[in-house]
Design goal:
The complex is a heterodimer. In chain A, 39% of the residues lie in helices and 27% in strands. Chain A is an alpha+beta fold. Chain A has a two-stranded antiparallel ribbon with strand order 1-2. The model of chain A has no long low-confidence stretch (mean pLDDT 78). Chain B is α/β, with parallel strands linked by helices. Chain B has a single domain, classed as P-loop containing nucleotide triphosphate hydrolases (Rossmann fold). Chain B is 41% helix and 16% strand. Chain B has 13 helices and eight strands. An eight-stranded mixed sheet of chain B has the order 3-4-2-5-1-6-7-8, sandwiched between helices. In chain B, a hairpin with a 6-residue loop joins strand 3 and strand 4. In chain B, helix 1 packs across helix 12. The longest helix of chain B has 17 residues. The termini of chain B are far apart. The chains are: A alpha+beta, B alpha/beta. Chains A and B meet through helix 1 of A and helix 7 and helix 10 of B.
Chain lengths: 79, 270
C-alpha cells in the first residue's frame, strides 16, 4: 500500500471480540461436563424407584455470577 | 507401547491431512518408528499427500474386519523407512466403525510403532468421535480465522467428553497448531495473532505455520513439504515434529513480516 496512513484499522480486534462472545455462549449451551450422560442415567434410576420417568433434560444456566443446573424430569404418563 | 496422537480440527480444509503427513514424516526423520492412519473414511486423501496412492491395496476397515492382516495392509513410505501408512476405505461409510474394533486396531499398531498418528475427519462428522476415543494426545489444527477457531472449540469439547482417557480419569494432552499464518496481515491488524487464539482456546501451542504456496506444489508431487529444506512451512513442520519427540525447540516468531530493505521497496510499488 502506497499511503499506509490512510489505511483503515484492521479487523483482527473485531474478530477476537466476536469470537470470545460466540465461544462463551457455545460453551454454555453444550453440556460441557464429561459425566453428564452417566449422571443422567443415575438420576433416572433414582427417580424410577418411585415414579415412572420418560426423559430427563439437564441444562446449565448462567445468570451473571450464578451458575445453576436445571433438571427437567419428564414423567411417564400412566394410562 | 507407542503413543497415539489424533490430528483433529473443527471444520474441514484447515490442513489436517497435510499436518498428519508432515508431522508423521518429521517424527520418522527423528528416528522413531511411526505409522500414519487415515481415519477419514470415504474421503481418502492422506495417500495422495504422501505420494502413496498407487501402493494402496488394502485399507484399515479390511484390517478391522479381519479380512486381511495388519502387515499386509501397512504401506512403507518411499521417503523414509521409519514411516508406514494405513489407508482409509473409500467405499465403506462411517457406520462400519465400532469402538471395540478400533481399540483392537490401535492397540496392535501401538505395539509395533513408537508413534501412531491418526488423521481424523472434521470435528462435526460422525467418524470424529471414534478417532479420538483411544488417543493419548491430540493435535488441534486451526487457521487464524473465526469459523475455524469456533469449531475447534467444539471439537475440543467433544474430545473432553468422549475420550476413553478422560473417562478413565486421565488427561488427553492437547497441542495447538496454527496453520496458514499471513505475517503481513497479522502486522496490519487484519488477522488474529497467535496470542489472541491462545487466549480464546487456552491450550498449549506446539507450532505456528506460515502460509506457503509450496504446500500446493508439494501435494501436486506427493512429497510432503517437510522434505523441502528451504520452505518456511516445511521448517515449521520440522520444528513441530521435533517438539513432539520431546526436544526443546524455541518458538519462531513467524508473525513478524520480512522487513528487509528490499521487501520495503517492493511493498512501495505494489
Amino acid at each position: 500500500m502506497m499511503f499506509p496512513w490512510f489505511k483503515k484499522k484492521g479487523s483482527a480486534k473485531t474478530a477476537k471480540d466476536r469470537l470470545t462472545i460466540a465461544i462463551m455462549s457455545d460453551r454454555q449451551n453444550t453440556n460441557s461436563f464429561p459425566f453428564m450422560d452417566e449422571m443422567k442415567a443415575e438420576i433416572i434410576e433414582v427417580v424410577k424407584k418411585y415414579i415412572g420417568v420418560k426423559a430427563i433434560e439437564i441444562k446449565k444456566e448462567v445468570d451473571g455470577e450464578v451458575e445453576a443446573l436445571s433438571i427437567d424430569v419428564q414423567l411417564d404418563k400412566k394410562d | 507401547m507407542g503413543v497415539v496422537i489424533a490430528v483433529i480440527s473443527g471444520k474441514g480444509g484447515v490442513g489436517k491431512t497435510t499436518t498428519t503427513a508432515n508431522v508423521g514424516l518429521g517424527v520418522a526423520l527423528n528416528n522413531h518408528k511411526c505409522v500414519v492412519v487415515d481415519f477419514d473414511i470415504g474421503q481418502r486423501n492422506l495417500d495422495m499427500i504422501l505420494g502413496l496412492e498407487n501402493r494402496v491395496v488394502f485399507d484399515m476397515i479390511q484390517v478391522m474386519e479381519e479380512e486381511v492382516g495388519l502387515k499386509q495392509a501397512l504401506i512403507k513410505s518411499k521417503i523414509n523407512e521409519n514411516l508406514y501408512f494405513l489407508a482409509a476405505s473409500q467405499t465403506k461409510d462411517k457406520s462400519v466403525l465400532h469402538s471395540d474394533k478400533i481399540k483392537k486396531l490401535i492397540n496392535s499398531l501401538s505395539e509395533e510403532f513408537d508413534y501412531v498418528i491418526l488423521d481424523a475427519p472434521a470435528g462435526i462428522e460422525s467418524g470424529y468421535e471414534h478417532t479420538i476415543e483411544f488417543a493419548d494426545r491430540a493435535i488441534i489444527v486451526v487457521n487464524p480465522e473465526v469459523s475455524s477457531i469456533r469449531d475447534a472449540d467444539r471439537a475440543i469439547g467433544i474430545l473432553d467428553s468422549k475420550s476413553q482417557r478422560v473417562k478413565d480419569g486421565k488427561e488427553v494432552m492437547k497441542y495447538l497448531i496454527i496453520n496458514r499464518i499471513d505475517a503481513k496481515m497479522v502486522q496490519n491488524g487484519e488477522m488474529l495473532t497467535s496470542e489472541d487464539i491462545l487466549d480464546i482456546l487456552s491450550i498449549p501451542l506446539i507450532g505456528k505455520i506460515p502460509e506457503d504456496k509450496g504446500i500446493i506444489e508439494a501435494s501436486n508431487q506427493g512429497k510432503p513439504i517437510i522434505m523441502d529444506k528451504n520452505s518456511s512451512a516445511g521448517q515449521a513442520y520440522e520444528r513441530i515434529a521435533s517438539r513432539l519427540c520431546g526436544n526443546q525447540i524455541e518458538m519462531h516468531d513467524i508473525e513478524v513480516a520480512d522487513t528487509s530493505f528490499f521487501e520495503k521497496i517492493k511493498e512501495m510499488f505494489k
